[in-house]
Amino acid sequence: KPYCQTVTVEPQRQQFITQQALGDEQELLPASQRYWLREVRMFGDGVPWLEGRTVIPEQTLSGPDRGLLDLNTTPLGRYLFKDNRLTRDYIQIGRQGELWARRSLLRLSGNPLLLTEVFLPASPVYQIDLFPNRSSLCEVKVHGAQQPKCT
Description:
about 5% helix, cytoplasm, Chorismate lyase, Chorismate--pyruvate_lyase, mainly beta, disordered C terminus, about 45% strand, about 150 residues, globular, ubiquinone biosynthesis, seven-stranded mixed β-sheet
């Protein structure tokens, strides 16, 4: 938050989808009858900073994590980092065209979710050098992408 006073989230899509609708993303997640898809745009002081896509197998939504269905305008990070149940299997950083992007396979209480973020031109990531090790970057495709190959 040091780059703005107010962070807001505008949901674009929040719905269950089938495994077939995932495309190549299904290779990164365990098989499931349905997946919760949440696509949002995040703003800092009203300026669009990123587009986020979260894909969550239905099994991950059991117990207390059923609250992931009700985030609406709450930033995902506020939910994920509220306690120590979160781990990260991997993070891939790369470019989607001219924009920086990252994809993370996260686990909440051991259950997976896939988060892809594309940083829009006004995002603070373009004002500071967040990715100094560019030699190990990946091409990150947001929708229906196979796991990127790193160079």
